[in-house]
Amino acid sequence: MTSRLALCLPATLALLAAPAAAQDLPQPEFYGQITLPSGLSMGGVTFGGISDLTVNPETGHILAISDDRIENGPARFYELALEAAEGILTLDIVATHELSDETGAAFGEKGADPEGIAFDDVSGRLFWSSERDAEGVPAIYVAAADGTGTEKVTLPDGYLPGEVTGIYGNLGFEGLTLSPDGQWLIAATESALQQDGPIATLEAGTLSRILMIDAATLEPAEEYLYPVEAIYEPPTGEESWNDNGVSAIAFGPDNQLFVVERSFASGAGNHIRVYLADIEGATDVAAGGIEGATPVSKSLWFEIGEGDFGGLDIDNIESLTFLPEIDGEPAFLIASDDNFNPATQFSQFVVFTIPR
Questions:
Q1: Between β-strands 269-278 and 257-265, what pairing exists: parallel, antiparallel or unpaired?
Q2: Torsion of CA 214, 12, 124, 83, to 10 degrees
Q3: Where do the structural domains in the chain lie, given as residue ranges?
Q4: What's the Cα-to-Cα distance from 348 to each of 11, 34, 64, 160, 319, rounded to whole Å?
Q5: Which of 282, 280, 263 lies closest to 272 in space, CA to CA?
Q6: Superkingdom of this entry's organism (predicted)?
Q7: Using an 8 Å Cβ cutoff, are 16 and 8 in contact?
Q8: 197 neighbors 208 (Cβ within 8 angstroms)
Q9: Residues 6+ away with beta carbon under 8 Å from 337
Q10: Cys-Cys with 309: which of 30, 225, 246, 255 at CB 3.0–4.6 Å?
Q11: To 10 degrees, the CA torsion angle through 12, 128, 78, 76?
């Protein structure tokens, strides 16, 4: 008897195959930005930590998840109303929704590290990912639209942290999106699994994992390797921290899968690159090792360095979602995670349009 996975595999490949290379896409144009200061309080709870975005088509509101590890407030996501017309942006925080665990209880301190969010307007389900809990274990959850009634996805063992396997610390599921047909929930790790190789360095990139999950059954299916670039530049000054990894994934209006790579170097700042990913021809590595496997192919769409787009002061971009048209043109929104750091960071919401 033919398995469901075998029947669905060609559809998956067709879904994620990019119909055009990134160089065929127009370069986006900066439309405007709104910044909110780090430390802003909403009902006694600090606003910030924006780590992923998705749109609820029914309300038109943007759902923004906070990566607070239950240290500044409960596990939560925000409902935002963004208006854009004739070059003017407004942003309202409509509501805050608390996320509960699979028992219905509130998460305890460091019990979750919310990073990805996706919404299915047909079923009304909310999907979200946690990069790690207090023991460093990643998770993916499905809940009702208000964040309650949570169910936990059973992950493949290869993602669970061990001495030589599983995610590296704080490098779990950073990207999450739902396929346009609602069939597949797609998660991406920020960096490689331990068994797949080292994390990115200045000399070499890394291989993050893309995990396909059947959205109806919540059963994991195919897995693919995504090649992350080397760290963009070395750190300067007294600190010596730098990195590069996948910080967001999202489908565009033409069913194309986009991947955000965020590179940071202390003293130098952030460098953001957005790629168009193409899974066609990539090897499904769910069943075994990665030796000889063909990774997902990608092509660079655009990048944002410090001061690009007319002097844009780009921060820690961890979010990407496509919007309804603005002034007759396709548009998308990126947002930054302020790390709850009022000294040097802020919550940044930047809108771009795509010329026809």
A1: antiparallel
A2: 140
A3: 4-353
A4: 37, 6, 12, 32, 10
A5: 263
A6: Bacteria
A7: no
A8: no
A9: 48, 49, 50, 51, 67, 315, 316, 318, 319, 347
A10: 30
A11: 180
Q: What is the mean pLDDT of each run of 10 residues along the chain (356 residues)?
A: 32 55 91 95 94 97 98 97 94 97 96 98 97 98 96 98 97 97 97 98 98 98 98 88 97 95 95 97 95 98 96 96 96 97 96 95
H helix or E strand, kind and range, residue 347? strand 346-353
State both tokens at 149. 């009634």
CA distance 3 to 49: 41
Write down the pTM of the prediction.
0.94
Q: Which of 117, 112, 96 is nearest to 48 (CA)?
A: 96
Burial class (CB in 10 A: 0-12, 13-18, 19+), 53: buried
Distance CA 333, CA 199 (A): 28
Q: Enter the CATH code of domain 4-353.
A: 2.115.10
Q: How far apart are the first and last CA of the chain?
A: 48
